[in-house]
């Protein structure tokens, strides 16, 4: 980066999985004291006036986009021959980094990721925007939720873009029509890229094979990949079928739009959570008699355990006596009926607790929510006075706490508005605790119990407050802790200022003023912080 400032932004350090190849920087808006991710583009002579006008119009449209799975764009600007776009700064790991670390993801994690991504694409498509670069390094996990970063409108035609040629691994995830015409982007190419990304996450391998751009391009155009279920046996056949439909070579053979994909993903979740098996899938249309592709026949044989049966419907099996056929059918009917009876037989209270326990021990958001919806709530409805009723209530409270805390963390990271008093008070108390003032945080948590304790709406946040109260009381607090802590923070800020780290020092002073402006007990210390911010005092101590 040739400069340390871009307009109102102070540039700090490079971002990305591979910073040396990135043109995205961490920056701080000097006036607003807000950290952002800024993407910088260079153009010869800074671009024409027409190109600059189009780029300015683009960032105005980007600023209006609002979706939880899209990184917020704050706008852009020009600086000499450079142009830039500023996005919200997300702390987390990209899908590319996760796959590099783990190899592949579980199908449950892929399903959790697919639904918000499909929703984001649907939102963009309704705004007549094609994302155009759905790849693992463009998917950031903010907490447990995936977020698409680097949203553009004129990605291919604008002179303000990254001119790096695509790598073979990137081409392996792009639609076949883009191999012959890179400008043929459409909602259908976004859906193909979504399917390719899900395929990669499920199997750990891209849907197109090859080590060079030429071989990958030919594979994308001509070859269908093996189905995910043939590579990962725990993959549900419904998810397998959807991914393969998204990867169809002809755009018209893919789902008609992102809304249809969302409905299909909901059906995958419904069938998977209802513990439906292959037998139900067969009865719902996945029949070996309806399969035409040889690879799909092989999958059907493996999944249904019918190695001895020829799946071609134009061939009549030979050598089987006619009087044996009814017996085979009757036996199969009994087996299927027994399987359905086993799957649909209602669980007793002990079994429901065991199933819920197995999911809760996974400690993932999706597993905990599944435990609540599939077992804990039904257990209380069916056995309200049962031996495990109190345990079920405690676990529901625990899941609600976990979900509420996660939702609040996401809102705070993305600067989204807080919707109720429980969120506001808990966020405020947590801010004191993170700043190091356990005494004030303890008072705030206790006030939550008094103000909100009787309202069921705020029960998750009251329970979160009780948990923090217990932790702080165990660790112990001191009445003079706030003064000592603020004094320590002032000293830390002075040292940062003296060493030239002005932004970090001002961030501490600003936090002190914001948190303690109405606290008379520490008013002299707050005045010091205000004085530092105004520049009317010498941080070295000789005031």
From TrEMBL:
<feature type="transmembrane region" description="Helical">
    <location>
        <begin position="327"/>
        <end position="345"/>
    </location>
</feature>
<dbReference type="GO" id="GO:0005524">
    <property type="term" value="F:ATP binding"/>
</dbReference>
<protein>
    <submittedName>
        <fullName>Serine/threonine-protein kinase PknA</fullName>
        <ecNumber>2.7.11.1</ecNumber>
    </submittedName>
</protein>
<keyword id="KW-0418">Kinase</keyword>
<keyword id="KW-0472">Membrane</keyword>
<dbReference type="InterPro" id="IPR000719">
    <property type="entry name" value="Prot_kinase_dom"/>
</dbReference>
<keyword id="KW-1133">Transmembrane helix</keyword>
<keyword id="KW-0812">Transmembrane</keyword>
<keyword id="KW-0547">Nucleotide-binding</keyword>
<dbReference type="InterPro" id="IPR011009">
    <property type="entry name" value="Kinase-like_dom_sf"/>
</dbReference>
<dbReference type="GO" id="GO:0004674">
    <property type="term" value="F:protein serine/threonine kinase activity"/>
</dbReference>
<keyword id="KW-0808">Transferase</keyword>
<feature type="domain" description="Protein kinase">
    <location>
        <begin position="1"/>
        <end position="265"/>
    </location>
</feature>
<dbReference type="Pfam" id="PF00069">
    <property type="entry name" value="Pkinase"/>
</dbReference>
<keyword id="KW-0067">ATP-binding</keyword>
């Amino acid at each position: 980066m040739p400069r340390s400032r871009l307009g109102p932004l102070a540039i700090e350090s490079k971002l990305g999985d591979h910073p040396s190849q990135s043109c995205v920087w961490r920056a701080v808006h000097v006036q607003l004291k807000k950290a952002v991710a800024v993407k910088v583009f260079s153009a010869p002579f800074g671009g024409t006036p027409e190109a600059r006008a189009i780029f300015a119009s683009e960032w105005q449209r980007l600023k209006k986009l609002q979706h939880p799975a899209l990184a917020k764009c704050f706008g852009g600007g020009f600086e000499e021959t450079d142009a830039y776009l500023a996005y919200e700064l997300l702390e987390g790991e990209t899908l590319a980094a996760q796959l590099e670390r783990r190899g592949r993801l579980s199908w449950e994690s892929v399903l959790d990721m697919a639904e918000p991504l499909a929703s984001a694409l649907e939102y963009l498509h309704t705004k007549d925007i094609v994302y155009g670069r759905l790849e693992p390094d463009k998917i950031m996990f903010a907490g447990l939720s995936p977020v698409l970063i680097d949203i553009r409108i004129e990605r291919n035609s604008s002179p303000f873009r990254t001119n790096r040629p695509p790598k073979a691994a990137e081409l392996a995830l792009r639609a076949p029509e883009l191999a012959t015409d890179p400008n043929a982007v459409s909602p259908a190419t976004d859906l193909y890229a979504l399917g390719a990304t899900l395929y990669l996450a499920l199997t750990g391998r891209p849907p197109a094979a090859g080590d060079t751009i030429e071989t990958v391009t030919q594979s994308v155009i001509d070859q269908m990949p093996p189905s995910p279920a043939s590579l990962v046996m725990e993959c549900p056949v419904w998810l397998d079928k959807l991914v393969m439909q998204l990867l169809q070579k002809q755009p018209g053979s893919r789902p008609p739009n992102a809304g249809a994909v969302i409905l299909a993903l909901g059906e995958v979740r419904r069938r998977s959570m209802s513990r439906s098996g292959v037998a139900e899938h067969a009865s719902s249309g996945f029949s070996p008699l309806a399969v035409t592709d040889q690879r799909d026949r092989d999958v059907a044989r493996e999944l249904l355990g019918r190695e001895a049966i020829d799946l071609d419907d134009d061939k009549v099996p030979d050598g089987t006596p006619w009087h044996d056929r009814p017996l085979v059918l009757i036996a199969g009917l009994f087996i299927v009926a027994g399987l359905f009876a086993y799957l649909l037989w209602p669980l007793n209270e002990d079994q429901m607790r065991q199933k819920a326990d197995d999911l809760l021990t996974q400690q993932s958001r999706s597993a905990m929510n599944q435990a609540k919806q599939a077992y804990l709530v039904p257990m209380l409805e069916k056995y309200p006075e049962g031996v495990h009723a109190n345990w079920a209530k405690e676990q529901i409270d625990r899941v609600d706490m976990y979900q509420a805390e996660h939702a609040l963390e996401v809102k705070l990271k993305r600067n989204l508005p807080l919707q109720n008093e429980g969120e506001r008070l808990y966020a405020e108390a947590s801010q004191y605790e993170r700043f190091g003032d356990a005494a004030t945080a303890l008072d705030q948590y206790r006030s939550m119990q008094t103000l909100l304790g009787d309202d069921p709406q705020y029960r998750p946040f009251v329970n979160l407050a009780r948990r923090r109260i217990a932790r702080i009381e165990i660790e112990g607090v001191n009445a003079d802790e706030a003064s000592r802590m603020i004094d320590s923070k002032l000293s830390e800020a002075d040292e940062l200022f003296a060493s030239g780290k002005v932004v970090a020092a001002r961030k501490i002073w600003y936090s002190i003023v914001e948190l303690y402006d109405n606290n008379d007990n520490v008013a002299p210390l707050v005045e010091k912080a205000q004085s530092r911010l105004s520049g009317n005092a010498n941080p070295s101590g000789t005031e």
